[in-house]
Please model this.
Amino acid sequence: MNDQTRRAEWIGLYTASIALALGGSAVLIQVTGGGSWAVFQALIEGSLTGNGRWGLTLGAAAPMLLVALGTIISARAGLVNIGQEGQLLIGAAFAVYFGFLIRGPGPFNLVVLMVFGAIGGAVWAGVAGLLRFRRGVPEVLSTLLLVTVASQLVAYALGREWLLLAADSAGARNNVSEQLPPDNRLPNLDLFGNQIPFAAFLAVAFALFVSFALARTVWGFRLRMLGRNPNAAQRAGVSQTSFGLRAMLISGAFAGLAGALMFAGGGFQFSNFKFVPGFSGNIGWTGLLVALVAREKAIPAILVAFVFAGLRTGSSFVGSTGVEARVTDVVEGLLVLALLIPPAIMFIRDRRRARLATTART
Model:
């Protein structure tokens, strides 16, 4: 089969899958008593065409993309890290604690926030990495269980003034941290009536760097070798423990950095520059889905993150159509399935063709 035929198959499968997902979403909206066209219009307006909306979408896409990049790196090493939600929370908690503890001038404290956010996420992923490579505990279990531990630790820290609780919040119904001072926040670029957060540029830059590092460097080659065949990698001098643990640390660092950027530059989307219970807002889980849908590729993850962020920001406009805003979660789920089905079909088809070719030769 030539490349053009194979490319046409991919395009046809993706087109058909996305059309079915959108059609299924439209049917679901009609069944629940809404107008499908009105809902889709509300999603577009809420995420793109509304006043200042695509700037907000970019702001939501940035942490999703960072989480996805970390997931891609661990996946290339053959590791299944699904604890990004907890790593993001711990990273944000580290950023808040050390940011208010050090309290340097604006630009310096921004660096402190990002550095300690990355350190916090790396530490939390490192726990799972050590369990995996020192005790043989599967990382798919440890990372998931550590999400619950992280949420409990954050809840404890938000109840103590000597950790994260703001002094004027003690005894209040909802415990929150201090609000980040204006001079410590990430700047925005005003463009066509939209405020484009600096975090969006940073996330795209990281995506380009990760794509280059994985495809064009010796480190990326060794990481891919480890993920595809650990035994062959070990014989070639690639230590599974060393490279695997580093991959987990980097994966957690990206999730922690995402948490720090949400705190320093997320605005009202992420609790108005305060650290609160439920701060992560499922960004860690969504970033995991972004990496999955992008098929563990950094550049496609940019577009996928923007689409998922659009569903998130557009959902606030869906309520005006008389339909529950949660319908966007269903649309998101159907799109995820639609984008995962073509690779599965092509994998089955390739295996069948290979089997038939082997049978023909014998």
Q: What stands out?
A: Residues 61-299 form one domain. The first strand starts at residue 188 and ends at 191. The radius of gyration is 22 Å. Strands lie at 188-191, 194-197.
